[in-house]
Amino acid sequence: MHRLEVNKLRNAAKFFSHLLHTDSIGWNCIQVIQLNEEDTTSASRIFIKILMQDISENLGVEKFARKLDEDEVKAYTGGLFPKDSVANARFAINFFTMIGLGPITVDLRAFIADAPRLMLEQKYAELLAQAEAAENGDSDSSSDNSSSSGSSSSDSQSSSSKAPPNKIQSRSRSASQPRHQRSEGSA
C-alpha cells in the first residue's frame, strides 16, 4: 500500500469494497489486515478507511455491523478488531470512530470494559499455576534449600572469622540493643 499513489490507493480500496459487499470474494481476505499502531502505515490506514467507509455506504452501517457479527466473517476480522491488548483495541476504536464507523466497534468497547476483570482472572490463574508448581516441586526444592543454606551459613562463619573480634561483638551488641539503652550504657 505504501507504494501506491493516493488515487490508486482509493481505486484499490473501492475495488475490494465492491468485491466484499457484493460477496464476490470471501471475507477471508480481510484476515491479512492488522489494525494497530505498529503494523500500519498512513497509506494502509487510508486504504482501510476507504475500504470500510465504502462498504458501509453500500450496505448501510447497521447491515455492515450485522455482517461483521456473522460467525463466518467474525473469524477473519480479528486483525481489524484486535483483542490482543487494550492499547490495540483502543487504537481500533479510535480509528473507526474517527472515520464515522463507531457503531461497528461494540464488541471492542465491551472487551475494554471487561479488560480489568479479564486481566485479574488471568493473573489469578497464573498465581494458581505457580502455587501448584511450587507444591509439586516443594519436596525437591526443600532438599536443595537445606544444602544451599548449609553452605551459606558456613560461608558467613568463615567471613566473620576474618574480621577482628572486637568489631563483630560491637556490631552485634549495637544492632540488638535499642538506641536509648546504648547511650545509657556508654555514659
Structure overview:
With 187 residues, this protein is mostly helical. It has a domain at 6-127. Helices cover 73% and strands 0% of the residues. The protein contains 9 helices and no strands. It has helices at 6-21, 42-59, 61-69, 71-74, 86-98, 106-136, 138-162, 165-176, 179-186. Helix 1 packs parallel to helix 2, helix 2 packs across helix 3 and helix 5 (86-98) runs antiparallel to helix 6 (106-136). The longest helix has 31 residues, at 106-136. It is elongated. The protein starts with 5 loop residues before the first helix and ends with a helix. Mean pLDDT is 79; it is low at 145-164, 166-176 and 179-187.
Can you summarize this structure?
This protein is mostly helical and 187 residues long. Helix content is 73%, strand content 0%.
Can you tag this structure with a few keywords?
single chain, 187 residues, mainly alpha, disordered C terminus
Order of helices and strands: HHHHHHHHH
Overall shape: it is elongated
Helix content: over 70%
Radius of gyration (CA) equals 32 Å
Number of strands: 0
- List segments where confidence is low: pLDDT < 50 over at least 5 consecutive residues: 145-164, 166-176, 179-187
Q: Roughly what fraction of the amino acids lie in strands?
A: under 5%
Mean pLDDT: 79
Taking the alpha carbons of the first and last residues, their distance comes to: 85 Å
| Major β-sheet profile | none
Count, helices: 9
Find the structural class using helix and strand composition. Answer: mainly alpha
